[in-house]
Write a structure and sequence with these properties.
Elements (H helix, E strand, L loop, with lengths): L3 H19 L4 H8 L3 H8 L7 H11 L3 H15 L18 H8 L3 E6 L10 H9 L6 H14 L9 E7 H5 L5 H15 L4 E6 L13 E4 L3 E5 L4 E4 L2 H17 L3 H23 L1
Helix pairs in contact: 1-5, 2-3, 2-4, 4-5, 6-8, 7-8, 10-12
């Protein structure tokens, strides 16, 4: 038996799978109708992912559910969200490190706005940087880390999809907080410059020479305008309370207005890369 939360996740997944089968749809067809990735449908149905209210609404629309059935599945989601939280020793449903469910949530959003003050946003991480992130999660195994890294890299393809918008705001401290080696960070920062050039992406950096508009307690990712994802050491939480989402949106706006974008941001990243090159040379002498 799993935790109360896991049992309710499975109940929600079983009900959605039954409704899909009744509708005569494959997982791939439902994913296309709902505008989500097929892995999202699979993970929800197998009780390995808690869908955000927005994703659940898309699945309901894709299934063509009537109002009473929509209320039923929404009640099942509420039951998941109100279940007793897992204890630190509770294994994740698929054995994956924290962060993988966040990747799925980002995959289904059309507008992603992420502010980070310690770690690079998931969608911008290189494979080696992501490996260090997942390895730092309590209880992570090499096999699970490998799967998580592959999933994260695959999810990043959404950055190139027309019709999506991604806005990332980082403190300069994020660029200078490095795992592994200086050469790892040089490759990572080179990737930032490549992503920044995309028409679907805006990258802002808050220089250390400017005061922060607020003292952030943690990073966060806004999903469309209806939810916010917060990643912890052990899990991810998607919050959809309107007042809470509005508070995070206000905070994001403050940092967005204080950050530099475009040529100024690129120049700042290039300056950090110069420092890493000097550090790399000093460590290899």
């Amino acid at each position: 038996m799993g935790s109360e939360r896991q049992e309710r996740m499975r109940a929600l997944g079983v009900r959605l799978r039954g409704l899909r089968v009744e509708a005569g749809l494959t997982g791939a067809v439902l994913a296309e109708r709902a505008g989500v990735g097929q892995p999202t449908v699979s993970k929800v149905e197998n009780g390995r992912m808690v869908p955000s209210p927005d994703v659940l609404g898309r699945l309901c629309d894709g299934l063509g559910l009537d109002a009473p059935t929509v209320r039923e599945v929404r009640d099942l989601l509420i039951a998941v969200e109100t279940a007793a939280p897992d204890t630190p020793d509770t294994p994740r449903p698929d054995g994956a490190p924290a962060g993988t469910l966040l990747d799925d949530a980002v995959r289904t959003a059309r507008l992603v706005r992420s502010f980070q003050c310690v770690v690079l946003p998931a969608m911008l991480q290189s494979a080696e940087y992501a490996r260090h992130v997942f390895q730092s999660a309590p209880g992570a195994t090499p096999e699970a880390v490998g799967r998580a890294v592959a999933t994260r890299v695959e999810r990043q393809s959404v950055l190139y999809e027309p019709g999506r918008e991604s806005v990332f705001v980082l403190t300069e401290g994020v660029l200078r907080t490095w795992p592994g080696t200086p050469s790892l960070m040089l490759a990572q920062l080179d990737r930032l410059l490549a992503v920044e050039s995309l028409s679907t992406v805006r990258l802002g950096v808050l220089p250390w020479t400017r005061p922060v508009p607020a003292l952030p307690r943690h990073g966060f990712t806004l999903l469309d305008r209806t939810a916010v994802a917060v990643e912890t050491l052990r899990d991810e939480r998607v919050l959809d309370d309107p007042a809470e989402v509005a508070a995070y949106e206000d905070t994001f706006t403050c940092f967005e207005e204080a950050a530099v974008f475009g040529a100024e941001a690129r120049e700042l990243v290039l300056g950090v890369m110069k420092d890493f090159r000097n550090l790399d040379e000093s460590t290899t002498r």
